[in-house]
Design brief:
Layout (H helix, E strand, L loop, with lengths): L1 E4 L11 H29 L1 H27 L2 H21 L3 H25 L16 E3 L15 H4 L2 E2 L9 E2 L8 H9 L4 E2 L1 H12 L17 E4 L6 H13 L9 E4 L3 H15 L6 E4 L5 H8 E4 L2 E4 L3 E4 L1 H10 L10 E5 L1 H6 L5 H9 L30 E6 L6 H5 L7 E4 L13 H4 L12 E7 L5 H11 L5 E4 L3 H14 L4 E4 L5 H12 L5 E4 L14 E4 L6 H8 L9 E7 L1 H13 L5 E3 L4 H32 L1
Parallel strand pairs: 3-14, 6-13, 6-14, 7-11, 7-12, 8-11, 12-13, 15-20, 15-21, 16-18, 16-19, 17-18, 19-20
Antiparallel strand pairs: 1-2, 4-5, 9-10
Helix pairs in contact: 7-8, 8-9, 11-13, 17-21
Bound molecules: adenosine-5'-triphosphate.
Length: 648
């Protein structure tokens, strides 16, 4: 198919039109001559083409004869029918418009003409298949851009992602006695026992020795004198990932002499930072290690004072391990002169997939700059940002920065992971995806392949088909009739969480609380504590509590609003069935959501979501009270709004 007509460059513009014309003619003649020569040359080079051409002509002739014969062979009856039909067509047409019969005839002529033109253009192609100059312009006509069907795209993962070190996901059947895991020092073993940990979970038994292996020759170099490999861990929710980094870091740093920030642990929210900070404090007890949290719970000045102090002219670190949220960390790097990361040995990124999404805050770039800051006073341990490994780059030895990534939904998107600048990463995972083949037919689909995740072994997933108006009754039914307790219920917005909280409270009979950004950090802390102590039966929350929060004894998770993303679902339902225990997750689904939701969960590797039908009769007895409550709710919300308005 010819698409473009290419005009050639004819020289600089000339005002003299005659000169231009004569030059064009000369150029045209020259080109035509060249084309002729090329054609002749090609024909003489490939004599067999002539034979082929002759053969082709021969075949054409035969084809025409065959057609003629077939037309002649057509039974006379049908021939007569055809001519009759044509005559009647002409008749009818002429009755309406006299020109139509002419068009009829001319269209046959046109076809004939087209055919001739086609033959002509075919003849224009030279023997090598290249188009020859057009008879009118002498310019080559380009073409050949046919429609092509897009091929299936096979997703190929880098080896380290495709072939991870496999972690058993069944916790209960794969407990490993702490004393049989190599490399753990007696002090830490004692502390573990004291905290009731007799066995390691599979993820801990795999990851702790791997991290300790990187410090077997001290903090300065890894095994064989090389920089230790970065470690990525993708294991189900509640599988014990926190201890998998707390234990080796405490052990590796416990022999340090001078207090410097050697481990930085980053988490996406204040609550998570607080939770991990607590675990670090528990295991740092009895050592000289100092753990500090900078997550914005206290004022900047208070955090600053906990990080360093001035002794004479020097600023001395008061922290060995810093647990932080990215926002506050960036503040301290930028504004706190006493905060130094020049001795950083471990950078732990928990909830790594979420942290990668917050890379726009450029926290990683700032951390890297702070670690390899020039003009530091750390002459013996001077650090340069590592480049390619050469004999020269390995000397002098410098403290490596090892990155440890943890998540229940670690992305397998190499492009995203690349942003972290990982060094020879090693992946521990309970999902073995291999080089999964994506069945999409477009490149866009292929770039967003369906990722597989692992769900806790003890989790049973259900969905309840419902309508919008029945949702509040369903949650009340679960608590009041089915007597569920310690239920964590998720909505998709804080407004929805608040309304549902008000409604349940007004309905009565349930100890209910809400958890969202409406509450201050201290209120949120207290709410979580009350929920953990089972003072609250139903906690209605936004996704603020969906990630990482470890609340003992959550027996049931309810997705009041179906989550839009699979990662959200995995983290929400992962608030139950933790540490090898069992738990239930219910998702309320509207008719329109059912198909897509079930498909999404199945694609992500769930063993199946069971359908649970709650008959309308079961809800009937609550309906009258519910109607009254709706009126009360309307008034309560109006009151709230007017109070807010007055406060402004
Ligand atoms: N070896 C162990 N023995 C007994 N309990 C453990 C052990 N390891 C961890 N736990 C408990 O298991 C629970 C879940 O652990 P943790 O919070 O580390 O899970 P996680 O994998 O980080 O989950 P998430 O992905 O949801 O953040 C915690 O309450 C923790 O105290």
């Amino acid at each position: 198919m010819s698409l473009f007509l290419m005009n050639r460059y004819l020289g600089d513009e000339d005002d003299d039109n005659t000169g231009k014309e004569s030059r064009s003619k000369a150029l045209l003649q020259k080109l035509q001559k060249q084309a002729k020569e090329r054609e002749q040359q090609a024909l003489s080079n490939r004599p067999h083409d002539k034979a082929e051409k002759a053969e082709e002509n021969d075949t054409d002739e035969k084809e025409v004869n065959r057609k003629r014969k077939t037309t002649e062979d057509v039974p006379i009856q049908s021939k007569e029918k055809k001519s009759k039909k044509k005559a009647s067509l002409l008749k009818t047409a002429s009755a309406h418009d006299k020109e139509i019969p002419c068009e009829f005839e001319s269209s046959t002529d046109e076809k004939q003409q087209n055919r001739e033109e086609k033959k002509e253009s075919e003849a224009c192609s030279d023997a090598s298949g290249e188009p020859k100059g057009s008879s009118q312009t002498g310019f080559p006509i380009l073409g050949g851009f046919e429609k092509k069907t897009v091929q299936k795209v096979h997703r190929v993962l880098p080896q380290w992602l495709a072939q991870p070190d496999v972690i058993q996901k069944d916790i209960k059947r794969n407990l490993i006695p702490i004393s049989s895991v190599p490399g753990i020092c007696p002090k830490i073993l004692k502390r573990l026992e004291k905290n009731g940990i007799d066995n390691f979970f599979p993820v801990q038994a795999e990851v702790i020795p791997a991290v300790l292996d990187g410090v077997c020759h001290g903090l300065l170099m890894g095994r064989g004198g090389y920089r230790p490999r970065d470690i990525c861990v993708s294991a189900p929710t509640g599988s014990g990932k926190t201890l998998a980094f707390v234990v080796p870091i405490i052990q590796a740093l416990s022999e340090r002499v001078i207090c410097q920030v050697r481990a930085l642990v980053l988490l996406p929210t204040k609550e998570l930072a607080q939770q991990v900070y607590k675990v670090f404090c528990t295991y740092a007890e009895g050592t000289s290690l100092k753990v500090v949290i900078v997550a914005g719970q206290k004022s900047f000045a208070t955090e600053q004072a906990s990080l360093s102090e001035d002794r004479g002219r020097r600023s001395c670190s008061l922290a060995d391990i810093v647990v932080a949220t990215p926002g506050r960390l960036v503040d301290h790097i930028n504004k706190n002169d006493g905060f130094s990361l020049q001795h950083l040995r471990f950078l732990v990124i928990d909830e790594a997939d979420r942290m990668i999404d917050s890379m726009h805050q450029s926290w990683l770039k700032l951390v890297t700059q702070a670690v390899y800051k020039k003009g530091s006073d750390v002459s013996i341990f001077g650090r340069r940002e590592p480049g390619p490994i050469t004999a020269a780059s390995l000397l002098p030895a410098q403290m490596p920065l090892q990155k440890l990534l943890f998540s229940a939904t670690l992305t397998q998107n190499p492009e995203k992971l690349q942003q972290l600048g990982l060094h020879q990463p090693r992946l521990f995972s309970s999902v073995h995806s291999g080089t999964s083949v994506h069945s999409g037919t477009s490149t866009q689909e292929a770039s967003q392949p369906m990722e597989k995740f692992n769900f806790p072994e003890g989790l049973t997933e259900y969905y309840i088909p419902c309508t919008l108006s029945k949702k509040p009754l369903l949650i009340l039914h679960l608590l009041l009739r089915l007597k569920f307790s310690t239920v964590l219920c998720f909505t998709n917005s804080r407004e929805a969480a608040h309304r549902l909280f008000m409604l349940v409270k007004l309905f009565g009979g349930v100890q209910v609380a809400e958890f969202s950004s409406r509450l201050s950090p201290s209120e949120r802390k207290k709410t979580l504590k009350d929920f953990e102590q089972e003072k609250i039966q139903l906690l209605i929350s936004t996704d603020a509590a969906s990630r990482g929060i470890d609340i003992q004894g959550v027996k049931c998770v309810v997705n009041y609003d179906a989550p839009q993303f699979i990662r959200t679902y995995v983290h929400r339902v992962g608030r139950t069935a933790r540490a090898g225990k069992s738990g239930m997750a219910f998702t309320f689904l509207l008719g329109v959501q059912e198909k897509n939701f079930l498909q999404m969960v199945r694609d992500a590797g769930s063993s199946g979501v069971q359908k649970q039908i709650i008959q309308s009769e079961s809800l009937r007895s609550m309906e009258a009270r519910y109607e009254e409550t709706l009126v009360e709710l309307g008034n309560a919300i109006k009151d709230e709004k007017s109070k807010k308005h007055m406060a402004l």
